[in-house]
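User: quick one, sequence for these tokens?
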């Protein structure tokens, strides 16, 4: 990669960072994703410390989870800090949302196409101080190259970051 080495600053251990939720409905799946978002966004205390990006397989899932997050009562995050990226996002909005995705407190919900080749960069030193951007994959990449690209949406250019997976069966 043109961005240099990543693995030394990327936190991921399959035994700790992969959860499979056995369900036929979205509710338990979304509940677990929500717990992951809050866990990595907040870390400790009552103010956001990191940024979180959640990648879904479809734009339908992005919309459903956006609605789920927006409807939470007394969430520990700013609802206006949630942004979405899918095939319907205009070029201008896409650029703006990608730039904001690495800032403290931001929650970016995106389709799988953004997990590959999109240049997300964290310029917030506070986010870096607390471990960098956290990426949550909600689907199992079918090719090794897709997995490598998805996990490298964080821990780029010598910066820290972490990855987890929440899957449903």
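Assistant:
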């Amino acid at each position: 990669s043109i961005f240099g080495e990543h693995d030394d600053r990327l936190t991921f251990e399959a035994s700790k960072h992969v959860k499979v939720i056995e369900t036929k409905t979205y509710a338990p799946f979304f509940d677990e994703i929500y717990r992951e978002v809050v866990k990595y966004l907040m870390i400790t205390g009552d103010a956001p410390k990191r940024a979180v990006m959640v990648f879904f397989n479809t734009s339908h899932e992005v919309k459903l989870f956006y609605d789920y997050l927006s409807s939470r009562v007394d969430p520990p995050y700013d609802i206006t800090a949630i942004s979405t990226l899918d095939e319907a996002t205009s070029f201008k909005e896409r650029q703006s949302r990608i730039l904001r995705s690495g800032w403290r407190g931001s929650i970016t919900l995106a389709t799988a196409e953004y997990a590959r080749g999109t240049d997300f960069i964290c310029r917030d030193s506070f986010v870096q101080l607390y471990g960098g951007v956290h990426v949550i994959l909600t689907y199992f990449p079918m090719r090794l190259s897709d997995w490598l690209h998805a996990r490298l949406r964080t821990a780029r250019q010598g910066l820290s970051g972490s990855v987890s997976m929440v899957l449903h069966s």
